Amino acid sequence: xxxxxxxxxxxxxxxxxxxxxxxxxxxxxxxxxxxxxxxxxxxxxxxxxxxxxxxxxxxxxxx
Length: 63
Known about the structure:
The chain is built from two helices and no strands. The chain is mainly alpha-helical.
């Protein structure tokens, strides 16, 4: 796999992972709202938990 193809694949996988985490957060929020006592994963993407849109990767070291 070329480095360009690898980069594209990584971008796709990262976006897919964020989409799944956003859905997970939706379900967690619904369950908490209904009175269930749940804790979020400590490694959950903050963009999913906070419901924000961002092009910045959580692994981006350019803060």
